[in-house]
Write a structure and sequence with these properties.
Blueprint: H1 4-13, H2 24-30, H3 34-45, E1 53-63, E2 66-78, E3 81-87, H4 97-101, E4 116-122, E5 128-131, E6 138-141, E7 148-152, H5 156-170, H6 186-190, E8 201-204, E9 210-213, H7 216-229, E10 241-253, E11 260-271, E12 274-280, E13 300-307, E14 311-316, E15 325-329, H8 337-346
Parallel strand pairs: 5-9
Antiparallel strand pairs: 1-2, 1-7, 2-3, 3-4, 5-6, 6-7, 8-9, 10-11, 11-12, 12-13, 14-15
Protein name: NISCH protein
Organism: Alaudala cheleensis (Asian short-toed lark)
Subcellular location: Cytoplasm
Length: 348
């Protein structure tokens, strides 16, 4: 251990997304290759001597206790735990996090020493994994609110690869077997619909960790929500969601010294007639078992919505992935302009 193939794969995956900024300490990690990366893991991160590094992924993450702070992390999967190597700036982003992280003020802030903190979720504490719509993100749930993390991969391939690697690692865990299930008849097995809605698809792994996938009703609920935001202008049965993607809205900061831009996470939803941007809660839904009250905000909050017929042109950048798109709409205050002109000029 490790094999040449694994070291090559981990080296290839060790690349920070170009559009996201990270601290110097994480840039150092991203510069490590091959055996140096594995040695760094064993000497600085691994908690047990005989654990093996199996997968590496860079992703934005959200914590249940701090749902408004999205932070870049290097996610390391070993045969014992999932490690989230975090930017040190995350600690100072919110005063409410001091209890969560239990961190003393360090004396090395002004020195050349760069600190990263590592959040550890042991595989034995893992209870369920919720995969988001179209594999754009996934949520890992442990036994308490401190052990709920959402990885916003914004990439179905990265999500799929991580889930496959996680299942493979969980298969190595020695857990006590579940008791033998009681034989059920057909009607009790498939007729338990007390909730009135179809449950999500669940796959219970041999390690007893649940992998929960969204069903088609979630798309139906989303379509209904979108139709509500459109003030009933569209016939609901004919409303189709053509695209659901986690993206960033670019806000240019003109006042700064350099012409920089900030990225605001948004959920983009395209229907046959409209383009919507939503602020979505990726961490609170579905409610964890220990939650005593619903979240303070809805899962989807409308940030902006425009009609496709008002779309004037789409500008595409020439850079490689991630692609920047600029949608230019006709900026009309009154959407039904022609109708009002007719009333004003040719009738009372």
């Amino acid at each position: 251990y490790p094999s040449e193939f694994l070291m090559q794969k981990i080296t290839e995956d060790n690349q920070i997304p170009v559009h996201l900024r990270v601290s110097v300490s994480l840039q150092y990690v991203a510069g490590l290759k091959g055996r140096a990366l594995v040695e760094f893991f064993h000497s600085n991160i691994a908690e047990v001597e005989n654990e093996e590094l199996r997968h590496l992924m860079w992703s934005s993450v959200l914590f249940y206790k701090t749902p408004n702070v999205e932070v870049m992390a290097c996610v390391l999967l070993s045969t014992k735990a999932i490690y989230f190597l975090l930017d040190d700036s995350f600690i100072h982003a919110d005063e409410h996090q001091s209890d969560f992280w239990n961190k003393e003020n360090s004396d090395c802030e002004n020195s050349s020493f760069h600190l990263s903190c590592c959040f550890v979720l042991k595989l034995n504490d893992l209870q369920s994994v919720n995969v988001g719509l179209f594999d754009q993100y996934f949520r890992i749930t442990g036994h308490s609110a401190d052990h709920i993390v959402t990885c916003l991969t914004r990439d179905s391939y990265n999500t799929h690869t991580f889930i496959q690697q996680l299942m493979a690692v969980l298969s190595l865990l020695a857990r006590t077997p579940s008791p033998e299930p009681v034989d059920k008849d057909f009607y009790s097995e498939f007729g338990n619909k007390n909730t009135g809605k179809m449950e999500n698809y669940e796959l219970i792994h041999s390690s007893r960790v649940k992998f929960i996938y969204p069903n088609e009703e979630e798309i139906g609920d989303l379509a209904f929500l979108v139709a509500e935001k459109m003030d009933g202008l569209t016939n609901l049965p004919s409303l189709n969601i053509l695209l659901y993607v986690l993206a960033f809205q670019v806000n240019h900061l003109e006042g700064s010294a350099q012409n920089t831009s900030s990225l605001q996470p948004k959920t983009l939803i395209l229907t046959s007639s409209d383009l919507f941007l939503f602020d979505e809660d990726y961490i609170s839904y579905p409610l964890p078992e220990f939650a005593k009250e619903p979240p303070k905000r809805d899962k989807y909050q409308l940030a902006d919505g425009r009609r496709i017929r008002d779309l004037d042109r789409v500008l595409m950048g020439y850079q490689t992935y991630p692609q920047a798109l600029t949608f230019v709409f006709d900026d009309l205050q009154n959407q039904d302009l022609m109708q009002n002109l007719t009333l004003d000029h040719f009738g009372e």
